[in-house]
Fold these 3 entries.
Entry 1:
Amino acid sequence: MANAKLPPFITWRKGRPRFIPGAGERDLGFRGEDLRHRDRAGAPWLSFEEACAWGAARHAEILAARAAGRRRKGATAARRIMTLEDLLRDWLSSDAFKAIPSPRTREGYRKQVDAILLKPQTRDDRRAGRARERESFAAMPVTAIEPPEANGFIEYQIRTRGLYMGRASRAVLVQAFRWGRTSTSWRLKQNPFAGLRFKKPDGRIVIWSDAEIRQLVDAADALGLASVGDSILLGLFTGQRQGDRLSLCDDGLIDGRRQFRQSKTGAIVAIPETPRLRERLEQARARVRVVMLKFGTRPDTIVVFENTGRDYRPDTYRHNFETVRAAASLGMVEIDGRVTIADPKILGADFAHRLHNRMTWLLQPMPSCADKRDQDLRDTSVTWLARASCTVPEIAAITGHEPKSIYNILTHYLAITPELADAAIGKLVTWMDREGITV
């Protein structure tokens, strides 16, 4: 399958084949469809070989229709009703979409299109392999979508999926309709989503305490996920985003600064290293050497997943961080030689009483860790640097933040931490004394 090539107009996404004709093919009467047995929702999907055979046969029909120069029977009726799903599928296969430079952005748009066209699915449905139901809005004729209908759909998305997803859906639909207005195949007259305005999510600025950082790093080490602890300390002392941290490579010391290189972009982050980061990097290098011997891998990145010997996939890191956070908030115990998270859901609400003589606490609970997120490390890095009397340009040189973002973080933080104000007044008094200023 890896070396096979799909026929034209057939896409293969996570084991789900679909026929997506272009505008010219739709003019001939061909319609997009999922490739399933018995052509109904919930039916098994065609295998890769079956999809190739089906696609080859359909391509032959398309070539014959082109040569005949006439529409298939029923093509006129099909052409009159072009749905939102048709528009979104066309946009995803357009040259404009393929020209978006970031693969991550393109993948995010594809997932959001699924969230627009398909209803939410429960975990039980996913485990049972049940097909997702289509949103009725997906079948709505594009020409019938005006601002009231657009507004109603986004409000529905916000109710059912939350504010972030609703706003993300609107952003994707704005892009798709914008493309439709310039496309010679669609020539849309308006963009009904462009003028909609919805409440912005409240900004999240959360600062970790030193005790919480120690707790999370200790939990990671106790669970055998020291790589998560490496990432946490990298985030604290470099202020880099999670995705950038997971791709950081260590190019060593140059002119007294530690040179970190992002493996995917080649961007360089050069900063003086703290003694704690230096110590952790040495420990990480030693651990990675052992993992490399075990798996026969040669990872370039600093953060290496212990179970594979390779750099992290984002979803895997997110899952491991959540596990570490649960251990940090609930604590860890050893019961009859087995180390486990002290989760009452697993051990029973009265586990401490029942297992008193067989249980040893390895890590005491710290409930404040329960709501911490990896993204908070950038805010924490900024505020710690500010508390150390670093200027905004100095902070930006380390973390890569825009000055406006740094001011925004510090504005929120100053409301609950008066230490910076104390330091500023102290500097003012010292300066007045030095200059002999009296008022």
Note: Residues 72-80 have pLDDT under 50 and may be disordered.
Entry 2:
Amino acid sequence: MSEKFFHSKTAIITLSAACFVVLISLGVRQVFGLFFIDFNESLKISNTAFGFAIGIQMLMWGLTGPIFGALADRYGGHVAIISAFIFYTLGVYYLYSGPNTGIFFQIHMGLLIGIGLGGTAISIPMSVVGKHFPLSTRTIAMSIVTAIGSFGYFLSPIFTNYSLKVYGWNYTLFIFSLFLLTGLVAAYFVRSPSKNESVEQISDQSFKEALTEAFKTKSYILLVSGFFVCGFHITLVGTHVPKYVIDRGLEDWTAAAILSLIGLFNIFGSLLSGYLSAKMSKKIILSGIYFLRGISIIFFIFTPASNISAFLFGASFGFLWLSTVPATSGIVAHLFGTKYLGMLYGIVFLSHQIGSFFGAYLGGLFHDLYGSYDYAWYLAIALSVFAAIIHLPIKEEPVLRLKIE
């Protein structure tokens, strides 16, 4: 008889609410690049200043991820996510209402929104969901959160491109703040399992012991190092591709279409990654994803600029966009169990966000220094090769403590 997918009513509610939370959080986050021209004209924000703000946002997202993860592990997922949504909503609202120039732009776009993303986007909702599912179905459940949440990636650029033309950037940000309030309400239902609902034996390992164990595990260090590349890739693309395609003579709607295609194909890529991660080696899946990202970028930048090549890039890179997440988080849970999954995956995600900082900042800096994004793309290709190699030595087996238990 096949094992039940849902082991409790709380698991059903938590999975559904987590999907909505991630849809709202990532949907809003995905389209900030579409605002750049308006920010440049209305607020006099340069490429470098915009890239720096997004870089701060990525760093704060990463730095606060382990904090919100520890908060979720200790007090429940809903407490962590609601707290984060408050910061996120305030950041977007103040960008709308002002003051929103100079240092205030960096505070609102970088600091507040970054903190908000630390507890609402992907890592915390997914880690809470992961605690409701056993090893055999965990990556599938996590991939559902990633995939359905990614539908926001598909819808948001379409809505944003329309709203910017019809209502302007100010009112569009106000609408975003209302969206975030609905996410805050949904966050109340992202509940960690009770002791009776837990699908695995809870160890008596302490917070400090979990950290020590993780950083003594070579496979964890390799995973942390590799996820840096994922952050660099997706933030370089999400932040600077809108400007890049316009620089190459394409229309602004093409930029929005690329972001929408990324969201659409990410749904399929994430689901496939989650399914395959339950059937085969997760490290091989990750190595393949990073290698194929490099191929996708090479095709995009070395073929003549056209809508067809742009759309093919959006589809191919979108298929590989967050497909790294179920496999990466699945390895963390497999190595160490789920008791401190929020915190340990949060640390892996911190590396991702450090990569994101460099993807956002160096993209803008290279463009301002050299008049193009070429050097940023070359670096992204080199990092693809690095990530494809570094995942191969990872050992996908539980640490000695779990084997003994």
Note: Residues 135-166 form the longest helix (32 residues).
Entry 3:
Amino acid sequence: MISRAALFILLCSLGFCASPTADRNVNAKAAQEPNPKTDAPIYPAPLKNMIGQMIVVGFEGINAADDRVKRVAAQIKNGSVGGVIIYARNVGDPVTFERLTRSLHYSISDNPPLWIMIDQEGGKVQRLNSQKGFSDYPSAKKIGKGTLNAAFSVYRDLACELRGYGINFNLAPTVDLDRGEGVIAADERAFSADARKTTGFATQFVNAHDSCGVLTAIKHFPGHGSASGDPHIESADATAAYAAEELTPFKALIDAKKARAVMVSHIIDRDVDNAPATLSKTHIDRLRALGFDGAVIGDDLQMGAIALNYDLNETIVKAINAGDNILLFSNMFAYDPEIPEKAQIIVKKAIASGEIDPQKIIDSYNRVIALKQRRQ
């Protein structure tokens, strides 16, 4: 009679016996292989909070006790909003303003740090100014006529003033070229018509803000200098006048690792895409091809160039699918305090219907958090 030990050896030699280790390996492999019919995406955080980190909103009110301010503070606390943007309507005297920003920062609860953003370029675009008790700064055009050292000194004062009042993200510098007749040139928002000079002064702007712990975003990709239309009001078509050199400052700053974030404009260049750059995957893919792997900010999605041509649902879905990581709603043109809640509904429905790939939300969230970890 064959013994049990001999029978075991015989069965193993014939392949009928597998080791416990082999079983574990097979089971582990099966567990790692996704089943597209049943597997849900693995989110690094609750979906609501991930969408919320993509949302930046404007609001009304200058005082922390204002009900409109309390509402946005509650949206920050519950994870529906990852950032707010300051306009002149939010700026009272320095003491009141500092109390306002402090109250918003204190609303964070367990969420990642809050971005308090502003457009503080100097010249015509400065929300904090001497009329309200703050400092005034020269326009980019005036700065561009001086030296790089002088530019750094001015922008360091500007950045440290922002930081002192609780602002941690300046949506600047403008690296559009002065093309002579566009709205950017008319408002003296460009440093120069020369791409190399523009890059040099923009670098000083970024370095100065870095030294004070304030984030920056170079704008307005792919270059707004050729557009004669004003996207705040209407579509801005730059097709006929757009020049390839307008990409040069963006490429140079990306290569030099000075692009903390990039804001994409609403201009239309029909040689690339018929859609505004903000809603164009082709345009944003071109930005990625330049080597930029950080957070992409869409310019205000309530401007006329967008709002007159797309409804809110289309805007949000197209922006996310195009590759925008941060969705900015100024609430300047049509005030809607429920934008964060509406955005949540739209994005969740689009994910459920397959219009938005959940990976888009995951990628955006990861880029936002990486940027927030850089500067808090």
Note: The radius of gyration is 25 Å.
